[in-house]
Amino acid sequence: MSRVYNFSAGPAMLPEAVLRQAQEELPDWRGAGGSIMEMSHRGKEFVAVHEEAVRDVRELLGVPDEYTVLFLQGGATGQFAAVPLNLLRGKRRAEYILTGAWGKKAVDEAKKYCDAHVAASSEDGKFASIPARDTWALSGEAAYVHYTPNETIGGVEYHWVPETGGVPLVGDFSSTLFSRPLDVGRFGVIYAGAQKNIGPAGVTLVIVRNDLLGGASPATPGVWDYTRQAKDDSMFNTPPTFAVYVAGLVFQWLKRQGGLAAMAAVNERKAAKLYAAIDNSRLYRNPVEVSCRSWMNVPFVLADPALDGAFLKGAAGAGLTALKGHRSVGGMRASMYNAMPEAGVDALVDYMAEFERRNAPGAGVGNTP
Ligand SMILES: *Cc1c(COP(=O)(O)O)cnc(C)c1O
Question: What pTM, to 2 d.p., does this model score?
Fold first, then answer.
């Protein structure tokens, strides 16, 4: 069996070493006589797995003591509701910065619970950039400011953390958490669905500053009440035990790679290689302003969309899969999270060059000078 390089935006590749370990441990977890999936979430075996995963999140991201790490369910989409429910704390106003499709979904959901204002948006420019910080219309009165550090569909990423004065900053880090070091202390809440850069679908990581606990709206579902879940160590209800276990294996793998500084170096290099291949070609184009191009998700279009089908077919034949762009934008998208080996990006770049040679205008019999 040979594994392909899977460029899916999510659920995405997991490190092969993690899959092998999970396979090895599946029927008889460390001599316990059964699978970790079959054990009580309150038993000492799973509690130890859960606690180690929380410790590793803290260690990898350098989470300060005054923050709580939660493993919840409902995905990032659930957090679109959980954030206003937990953070409004008597206020009515929240402010959102839009740089793509996910931020728009977040603000639409928040409107059910509060006055969710768009304080800045790059939609007029088709979400190909980040509005300059000095153009953001922040009132200073909002319960929180929400943004999307990496827009997974458009491929727009902040390479900086916005300053919001004393107003808690909330980031939907679904497609970039653990790709590089992060100054967690700048945030009120960080959240991320697992299936992009953390582990299997089904678990959602939430990191919340403790002074923001205690004020959830009474209408907040218990499973999304940060305070309730903090008191219950994320076990107000049955947690997604297998997903937490596999995410834990990913955290251990990240530590073995040298942690987030080491991951950042590889991720930056992978991205530089692919953007160079795009920018140096006549066939491929990426629409995003250079200063905010994503390291994780790289959309690109072919000069002639009639070649899209042949590009995808040839790629799949070369073991490069899931390169079709999001249905809302078309073209191609290469997602390359932590688990995408650098060799996978090298293989993609080689394939793109070879495809361009074969399909360049004038290529073919009789046209060689
Ligand atoms: C994928 C994604 C989501 C949605 O995640 P779900 O787990 O499906 O709810 C939200 N925000 C961003 C930035 C994403 O990439």
Answer: 0.97
